[in-house]
Amino acid sequence: MIVEGLGKKYTSQGADMPALIDINLEIQEGEFICLLGPSGCGKSTLLRIIAGLIPASSGQITINGKAIDGPGPDRAVVFQDYALFPWMSVRDNIEFGLEARKLAPGARKDISNKLLKVVGLADFADRYPHHLSGGMKQRVSIARALAVDPSLLLMDEPFGALDAQTRRSLQDELLRIWREYRKTVIFVTHSIEEAIYLSDRIVVMTARPGRIKEVITIDEARPRDMAGSAMNHRQREVRAVLNEEIERAAILEQHDMMVGATHG
Amino acid sequence: MADLSYTKASEAGATLVALKIMGRMMPGRDRLLGISTIIAFIAIWEIVYRLGLMPVWAFPSPWKVVLAFQELIANGKLLSNTAASVGRQITGVLLAALVGIPAGLALGASLTARAAFLPLCRLLYPIPGIAWIPLSILWFGVGFKSTVFVIFFSGVWSIMFNTMTGVQTLSEQYTDVARVYLASRSLYTWRILIPGSLPYIITGMRLTYGVGWRVIVGAEMISSITGLGFLIDDARWQLRPDIMITGMITIAMIGWVSENWFFDWVERRTIEQWGMKTV
Asked: CA-nearest residue of chain A to B174?
């Protein structure tokens, strides 16, 4: 996948507000990429553009040489707040993409059975999402994405709403699934620890408008020992790059609040 | 010793079971309060009758109403008129749903549809159902069709506006998911739009049903020779207030049963099971 000269502008009150400027990125098949940046830097916007949910204002994204202009069967998204359908059982949720692809019920069931096992929810197939914990809901959402067998898995702060322990176990599970299914993963997060633990490369973005500040390669072998000195060193390195941007984001926010106060 | 302890244990068990059964049969405090108020209401009715505060020919005792019930059940009039009313009500409400739900879905999903049709709907909506009766008699004659038309026209708005609101308040995330997984328009409508706005659709159906049941009596008084409305109006010519009250109680009971039991049952099977019930 190649992202070339990608930009995104929003128009608010007649003025153009740039959200993303000149994003250039090349992602290899099977890579695990984290988009890391301060809140409001446009990393989720970038993910939504890659998903085809919103159009870019300039530049283009090509996957295997083909430019994308909307959602496609090669991409699936895992949303931050799960976005499961409460009126469908766990199984029906997982099968939704297959239903959209008009697969026969039997074939759908084979796939969902397998994925229910992969994410450890075989006993919950007939439950409704509101009976599940946050971690279980996100497993269903991951299974739903895997069901359509995409080559690119897009994850928008998927573990952001989970407690630390659940988060850690889901990270491990995601790595296991990633290895087993050989997917390319683009994972949005604002947690440095998460990014270092998971990714092959971390794309650090600037405070708004979002640009790519630096791409950091993490080549330590997995499983990574977060308490070890190598990872500690990595963490300091990434933190140093990111901190500037977090501070800048804070100043921007303060400015916004002051403007808001004088105007409001 | 062993025997003794055994009997004691079984005794304790029996007491526990008895307590449980009593607990199930004993109405709760709230229910008790509600029932006492109804009993008090009937008692006041009886007292007013006994004291002769109202002319006897126009004010029957509760017991006379019970006798009228018996009479109407025996001669089959209660059943036939109730069947007539319920048939019209169900037809009218189903028609309102058949038109109102798709219309509401379209209005909720499309800005253009809202711009085009909402002003007209807002103009027609405040016209009371009763006001349509004379016109509907001109159009459809006396009987089934004109009553159904009136029920339909007074009820369709609630279900339509509620469905529209349901679609409008549906989380945009569901639409995102549908787009990501390339769902067709029909899959989106049947699997997301309709179940997603079901809480509002059910509320709309409750309102539509209630409006219909309230308007049916008026319609039948004017434009029908069957139905509970007719039964009540016809009793006027026979100077039978006991029959009037019998008809009114029947309307109350059917309305109460269907509005509470039926729609509660639908809710339990759907939105409550899905954890979508908020009110």
From this structure: A83
* Structure confidence at residue B3 as a pLDDT band (50, 70, 90): very low
Check A53 against B187: CB less than 8 A apart. Answer: no
Give the whole-angstrom CA distance, residue B90 versus residue B257: 14
Name the helix (H) or strand (E) containing A76: strand A75-78
Q: Clarify whether residues B35 and B78 are in a common domain.
A: no
What confidence tier does B11 reach under pLDDT thresholds 50, 70, 90?
A: low
Using alpha carbons only, give the angle B142, B148, B150 rounded to the nearest 5 degrees.
Answer: 85
Report which residue type is found at B64: K
What domain range is B158 assigned to?
74-274
In a domain, B61, yes or no: no
- A171-193 pLDDT tens trace: 999 999 999 999 999 999 999 99
CA B11 to chain centre: 47
Contact state of B182 with A85 under an 8 Å Cβ cutoff: no
Q: How does the average pLDDT of chain B come out, rounded?
A: 89
Residues B172 and B219 in one domain: yes
Residues B240 and B104 in one domain: yes
Give me the residue label for tokens 């109202």. Answer: B54
Q: Give the gyration radius of chain A's Cα atoms.
A: 19
Distance (Å) of CA B6 to CA B2, B3, B10, B18, B69: 6, 5, 6, 18, 55
Residues B33 and B86 in one domain: no
**Chain-chain contact of A96 with B181 (C-beta, under 8 angstroms):** yes
Residues 240-279 of B with CB under 8 A from A: 270-271, 273-276
Global pTM value: 0.84
pLDDT of residue A15: 82
Q: Cβ A76–B191 below 8 Å, yes or no? A: no
Cβ distance B179 to A86 less than 8 Å, yes or no, reads no
CATH classification at residue B81: 1.10.3720.10
Tell me whether residue B122 is exposed, middle or buried, using C-beta atoms within 10 angstroms of its C-beta: 0 to 12, 13 to 18, 19 or more. Answer: exposed
Residue A187 phi, psi (nearest 5):
-125, 115
Closest to A71 (Cβ–Cβ): which among B180, B196, B270?
B180
**C-alpha–C-alpha distance, residues A200 and A219, integer Å:** 6
Question: How many CB contacts within 8 angstroms connect chain A with chain B?
Answer: 72
**pLDDT mean across residues, chain A:** 92
**At A56, which amino acid appears?**
A
Note the pLDDT tens digit of each residue in B234-251: 999 999 999 999 999 999
What total of structural domains would you count in chain B?
2
B188-216, pLDDT tens digit by residue?
999 999 999 999 999 999 999 999 988 98
